């Protein structure tokens, strides 16, 4: 109840508050009565001093997009209610960002008392239930359930059954559904007692072993590790040489740096290295790799099971693979004398045959006194490779600069093409002048055809000749020429319209272009090409009727057909 509403002025407080809720908070007219019944104090608050600052806090600081769903919070004080609860969650271990996420997911948290609600439930969650804080971040609705009537009874039932359910399943389910879940988890059809997290088979025994050794391990290490891995961790933590975790990490790090001699960036990529036993996993496997002369990455060396690890060693040590790569690498360094950065840029070098591709082509380059890049030497087909050699060795081109200049001069003087084509297709300079560019350009000139550089040079011989035949056939040029002549002479339009609508050439000249253009001329209307040609017959006639009606002054419109108007005058 809120009797003070009766004493508040209608024009200065009540009306601005209702307007604020409707316009700024976006509360619909249907939901407004329910919001006011639930929180009548909204009508007693000043918009400028209370409601609007609270709205900005919820939207800006907390990140609640639709405040209309929690409009009742607008009557609360930011400094007196919201900030203390955010500070409380920070004090108990949550990051500021995580606390905001919780309030964003469940804004009603702002309404709960710290002493009577949040604190008792949080203590029970940590001490009795022993759960992680990230579960509260994902399910902050935990604080909305009764501690005595819902949380404690259901948690005790789970403990008695040896079952660990997630918070939503444990608390949100109705009583019957909750008991069904317990029965399913405890029934013979689901072997919970044989599961890795069973209370009797996993949790209790391992907890006792940790207590006897005086070691405190994290829950994932205690429960998720296999039996041998768990015992290794216990032995490592309890060994005399490692009284604490700091010494344990230092010993592992010293072995990594001194014995293994690996770069530190591998630890950055694979920090799980410190989770493996030094005596049981790292040393034995590193020694095996050292004896075999193999260098494996940390994940492959440590994470693989024993059989998988030995298989990797056998593969790396087999006679076929190392010798194959070694021979190619030795030839690259000793015979070819190239820098290693070329292999980094072109590792496909190792995929080519040493005897059939690498050696023969390298010898040809040496005989010609030419040094080509690895991709040009190995990836080019035989004819293309020889063209490159001939170009680089011709007397008129002693170096690459002259080669490029000659190609450029031919492009400008003989071909007369615009420079922008070179910008779009700089691969022009990779083709032979005598074997590819000149012959194909001459054929295009003889046929009277102008092809783009990629079509003229990249196509194979048969594909290039097919393109020429198509472009020179009697049906195609005349077809386009007739349409273009009609467009320029009869229609009198500007060429930029063809640039904007090249589909003009796809329409029939006799059945679509001419008839519709004549109708436009007869009506004294000038429509755009897409409207004239793409519209269906009925839609086109509608356009003509609209443009010719008395309500639209066609003669003053930009679509007035000037040629017709000139003829009329």
TrEMBL record:
Key word NAD present: no
One Pfam family, short name: mTERF
Annotated TM spans: none
Gene Ontology molecular function terms on file: nucleic acid binding
BP terms from Gene Ontology: chloroplast organization; DNA-templated transcription termination
Keyword vocabulary terms for this entry: Transcription, Transcription regulation, Transcription termination, Transit peptide
Family annotation (Gene3D superfamilies): Transcription termination factor 3, mitochondrial (1.25.70.10)
Top-rank taxon: Eukaryota
GO cellular component labels: chloroplast
Classification via InterPro entries: MTERF, MTERF_sf
The UniProt record lists the keyword Transcription regulation: yes
Family: Belongs to the mTERF family.
Name of the protein in question: Transcription termination factor MTEF1, chloroplastic
Taxonomic lineage of the native organism: Eukaryota, Viridiplantae, Streptophyta, Embryophyta, Tracheophyta
């Amino acid at each position: 109840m809120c009797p003070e509403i009766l004493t508040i002025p209608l024009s200065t407080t009540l009306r601005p508050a209702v307007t604020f809720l409707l316009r700024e908070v976006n509360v619909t007219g249907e939901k407004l009565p329910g919001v006011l019944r639930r929180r009548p104090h909204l009508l007693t608050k000043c918009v400028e001093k209370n409601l609007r600052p609270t709205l900005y806090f919820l939207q800006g600081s907390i990140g609640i997009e639709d405040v209309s769903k929690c409009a009742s919070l607008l009557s609360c004080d930011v400094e007196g209610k919201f900030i203390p609860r955010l500070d409380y969650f920070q004090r108990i271990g949550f990051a500021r960002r995580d606390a905001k996420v919780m309030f964003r997911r469940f804004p009603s948290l702002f309404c709960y008392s710290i002493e009577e609600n949040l604190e008792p439930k949080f203590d029970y969650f940590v001490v009795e239930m022993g759960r992680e804080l990230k579960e509260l971040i994902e399910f902050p609705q935990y604080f909305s359930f009764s501690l005595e009537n819902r949380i404690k009874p259901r948690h005790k039932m789970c403990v008695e059954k040896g079952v660990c359910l997630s918070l939503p399943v444990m608390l949100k389910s109705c009583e019957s559904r909750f008991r069904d879940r317990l029965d399913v988890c405890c029934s013979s059809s689901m072997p919970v007692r044989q599961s890795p997290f069973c209370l009797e088979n996993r949790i209790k025994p391992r907890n006792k072993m940790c207590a006897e050794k005086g070691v405190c391990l994290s829950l994932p290490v205690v429960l998720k590790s296999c039996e041998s891995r768990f015992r290794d961790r216990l032995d490592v933590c309890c060994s005399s040489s490692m009284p604490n975790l700091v010494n344990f990490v230092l010993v592992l790090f010293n072995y990594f740096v001194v014995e293994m001699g690996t770069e530190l960036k591998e630890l950055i990529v694979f920090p799980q290295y410190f989770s493996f036993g030094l005596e049981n996993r790292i040393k034995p496997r590193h020694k095996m790799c050292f004896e075999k002369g193999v260098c494996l990455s940390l994940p492959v060396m440590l994470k693989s099971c024993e059989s998988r690890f030995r298989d990797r060693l056998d593969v790396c040590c087999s006679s076929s693979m190392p010798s194959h790569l070694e021979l190619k690498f030795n030839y690259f360094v000793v015979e070819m004398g190239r820098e290693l950065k070329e292999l980094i840029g072109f590792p496909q070098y190792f995929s080519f045959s040493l005897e059939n591709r690498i050696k023969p082509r390298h010898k040809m380059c040496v005989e010609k006194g030419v040094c080509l890049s690895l991709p040009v030497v190995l990836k080019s087909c035989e004819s293309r490779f020889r063209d490159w050699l001939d170009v680089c060795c011709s007397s008129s081109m002693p170096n690459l600069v002259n080669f490029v200049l000659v190609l450029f001069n031919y492009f400008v003087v003989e071909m007369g093409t615009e420079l922008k084509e070179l910008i779009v297709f700089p691969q022009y300079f990779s083709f032979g002048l005598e074997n590819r560019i000149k012959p194909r350009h001459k054929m295009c000139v003889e046929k009277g055809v102008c092809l783009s550089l990629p079509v003229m040079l990249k196509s194979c011989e048969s594909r290039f000749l097919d393109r020429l035949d198509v472009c020179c056939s009697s049906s195609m040029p005349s077809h386009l020429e007739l349409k273009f002549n009609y467009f320029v002479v009869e229609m009198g339009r500007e060429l930029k319209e063809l640039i904007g609508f090249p589909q003009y050439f796809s329409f029939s000249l006799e059945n679509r272009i001419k008839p519709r253009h004549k109708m436009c001329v007869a009506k004294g209307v000038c429509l755009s090409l897409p409207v004239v040609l793409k519209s269906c017959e009925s839609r086109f006639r509608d356009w003509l009727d609209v443009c010719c009606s008395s309500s639209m002054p066609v003669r003053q419109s930009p679509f007035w057909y000037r040629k017709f108007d000139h003829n009329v005058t």
